[in-house]
Design brief:
CATH class: Alpha Beta
Strand content: 15-25%
Low-confidence stretches: none
Largest sheet: 5 strands, parallel
CATH topology: Leucine-rich repeat, LRR (right-handed beta-alpha superhelix)
CATH architecture: Alpha-Beta Horseshoe
Number of strands: 5
Mean pLDDT: 86
CATH superfamily: Ribonuclease Inhibitor
Radius of gyration: 13 Å
Shape: globular
Structural class: alpha/beta
Order of helices and strands: EHEHEHEHE
Length: 123
């Protein structure tokens, strides 16, 4: 079973992958680490579909770099007490609500320890 999902491309020529394949890959029930770098295909809707199929009960690390079509809604799908997330790195994603992220981490922190790094997009 797929435990680590890492999809990366260069900043100047981001890869394109079909949404169906992304949902399929994210639906692996054994995932412990998910990393996307420069993936314009990844969206809130794809994350929502994947979360409907997978509880991410083993996911401990989530990294999204330059995934500008992932917004607060997409991140919210990962943020629940069922996921054993220990580290989240969000760099240059779409529109994120820093206050909401802090509140979620603070609330979830009552149940388990989590470290979050967020770098906002300038445009």
């Amino acid at each position: 079973m797929l435990k680590t999902l890492q999809l990366e491309s260069s900043y100047n020529s981001p890869f394109t992958i079909s949404p169906e394949i992304l949902v399929f890959l994210l639906s692996s029930p054994a995932l412990t680490k998910v990393t996307f770098r420069n993936c314009p295909t990844l969206t809130d809707q794809i994350i929502e579909e994947a979360c409907a199929r997978n509880t991410f009960k083993y996911l401990t690390k989530l990294e999204l770099y330059n995934c500008r079509n992932v917004n607060q809604k997409g991140i919210d799908f990962f943020m629940n007490e069922m996921n054993p997330l220990a580290e989240i790195i969000l760099k240059r994603c779409g529109h994120l609500d820093i206050y909401r992220l802090r509140c979620i981490v603070k609330g979830i922190g009552r149940y388990w320890k989590i470290q979050m790094t967020v770098h906002l997009c300038n445009n």
